[in-house]
Task: inverse folding
């Protein structure tokens, strides 16, 4: 805030303070006493007026009686007392308002710091969720790749099963039990194919080895019909083992599906949290803007209070000036 111009009262006060400290009240020393403010021309003009008033008062006081001097002194003391009381009350009220404004200002600063901290935490949480979202997307992409590989392996297995079905049909008339077992095996593979979304490469390779062994067994059966019954028993045993392994693969696929569903649910929850945090961040920005506006309003009120205080000081200075002017006027009336 710009400093107000110096007054005659301020110059007089500075001059009396220098005289009380036994310092020559020159223009430069008075300007230093006033805080290096005011022009030397204005200070010089006020000093001349003060010296002229003191000269008049000294000349006039010698002509006054003691009673009149006492009345003037009492009146001046009363006016000074009233002016000081006004100043004291104004300063007390102004100081109370300043204390309230400072308290509110501190509260607003704490609110701003808290909201800035919450914004920072929200930003960190948003970054963490973004990283988690990227990780989940990467896991989902990997799961899709695994499913694609599993589907490719399933197609290969289907081709193998089709070939095996042709070989089983050739033996169907003489080997009813074997045919039923192979049909059951084929149906199990088809059911497993409909439910299968993910297979491990090692298990698929094991199944391919077992199927090659089955092919060799079928060729041997075609060449040696007399040993068919024994080979049929062995095939049934092998098919049972294969069914158990297929059951294990099916269970693992079921777990993989559950994991995939959990991953999708986590991704959906992360997106919901991101939306909530984004909304909260926007609200905090709006609250922060409101706090800034309230802070600006408080600053305006504080400036108005300071301006009012300056007016009060000017009013007190004017009253003191009236007191000084009143004394020569009263003396002039008394002479008349």
Result:
């Amino acid at each position: 805030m710009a400093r107000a111009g110096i007054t005659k009262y301020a110059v007089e006060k500075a001059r009396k303070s220098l005289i009380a400290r036994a310092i020559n009240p020159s223009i430069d020393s008075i300007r230093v006493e006033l805080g290096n403010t005011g022009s030397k021309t204005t200070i010089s003009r006020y000093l001349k007026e003060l010296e002229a008033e003191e000269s008049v008062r000294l000349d006039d006081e010698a002509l006054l009686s003691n009673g009149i001097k006492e009345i003037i002194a009492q009146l001046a003391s009363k006016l000074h007392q009233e002016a000081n009381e006004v100043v004291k009350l104004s300063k007390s009220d102004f100081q109370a308002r300043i204390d309230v404004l400072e308290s509110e200002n501190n509260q607003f600063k704490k609110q701003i710091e808290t909201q800035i901290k919450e914004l920072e935490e929200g930003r960190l949480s948003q970054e963490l969720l973004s990283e988690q979202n990227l990780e989940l997307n990467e896991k989902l992409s990997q799961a899709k790749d695994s499913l694609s590989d599993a589907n490719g392996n399933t197609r290969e297995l289907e081709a193998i099963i089709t070939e095996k079905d042709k070989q089983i049909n050739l033996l169907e008339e003489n080997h009813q039990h074997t045919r039923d077992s192979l049909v059951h095996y084929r149906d199990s593979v088809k059911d497993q194919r409909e439910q299968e979304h993910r297979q491990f490469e090692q298990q698929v390779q094991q199944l391919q080895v077992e199927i090659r062994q089955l092919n060799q067994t079928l060729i041997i059966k075609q060449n040696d019909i007399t040993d068919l019954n024994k080979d049929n028993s062995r095939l049934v045993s092998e098919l049972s083992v294969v069914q158990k392994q297929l059951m294990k693969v099916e269970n693992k696929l079921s777990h993989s599906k559950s994991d995939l569903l959990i991953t999708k649910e986590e991704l959906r929850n992360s997106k919901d949290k991101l939306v909530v945090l984004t909304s909260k961040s926007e609200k905090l920005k709006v609250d922060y803007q409101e706090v800034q506006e309230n802070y600006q309003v408080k600053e305006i009120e504080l400036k108005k209070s300071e301006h009012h205080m300056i007016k009060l000081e000017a009013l007190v200075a004017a009253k003191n000036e009236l007191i000084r002017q009143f004394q020569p006027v009263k003396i002039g009336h008394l002479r008349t």
Remarks:
- The mean pLDDT is 78.
- Helices lie at 8-20, 27-33, 40-61, 66-170, 176-195, 201-223, 228-335.
